[in-house]
Here is the input.
Amino acid sequence: MAYEEIIAEVEKGILTVTLNRPAKLNAFTGVMMSELVDVFGRASSDDAVRVVVVTGAGRAFCAGADLSAGAKTFDFAARTDRPDRQAGSGSDINWSDERLRDGGGRVSLAIFECLKPVIAAVNGPAVGVGVTMQLPMDIRLAADGARFGFVFSRRGIVPEACSSWFLPRIVGISQALEWCYSGRLFDAQEALQARLVKEVLKPEDLLPRAYEIAAEIRDNTAPVSIALIRQMMWRQSALDHPMEAHKIDSRGLYARGASADAKEGITAFMEKRAPAFPQTVSHDMPPYFPWWQERNYS
Here is the structure.
């Protein structure tokens, strides 16, 4: 997969996605947005990909939005270089226009929809969209020199990339509000204490640890089960009653219990050997999937 502002490489079932604008601290652009949306869409349908690891080139993960347009950075009605984002101004704005959608949100939704586990290896500063894009990733690891910041209030804007949905679910409403109210930078240890990240590691140990976790998933689990588990956990976290989760759990257990994967998983356990699961995400998702109603931007 050839891209301009990211690198995507698959090796032994692990897709490494590297944000690749190191001279600009991997600042987020429209090109990077489109490439990230594309690579996560491809990962879902590619059976050669079992796990995705996301990191940054150079000394940063992502320093946030590219601010090279200056004061007009987020004023798309005034930017002649982004006609694709112009949806009117003042009283003429059509609030349901697709062109209003923020780029970080498009990336977060692409990650949310992905059928493969996603691990963030945060190698350096992660600010603005550089941290909000991590929130729909499943496991976040940080180098001990990483710094984070939900800086939107200090730039006169608001959080994006669906972070008002994700962040309180991960760290709680009080911590989410304090970080977003203040817009301050904080270090990896504070991120760890608040459970934004799972582990803090030395820089040289960061990617090896991410690959260790990815290999554990790759070598021991059924791809179809992982795809279902990921969507069940994320989509059912906000249901208003456990009965709704029970319905989907029951469908999954009934469908998967009769599957070739279930037979192999049990047989491999009994025979004390590594499993060789035969089913694939591209061909063997159960008939009730996807169970959620289609949603559009309107």
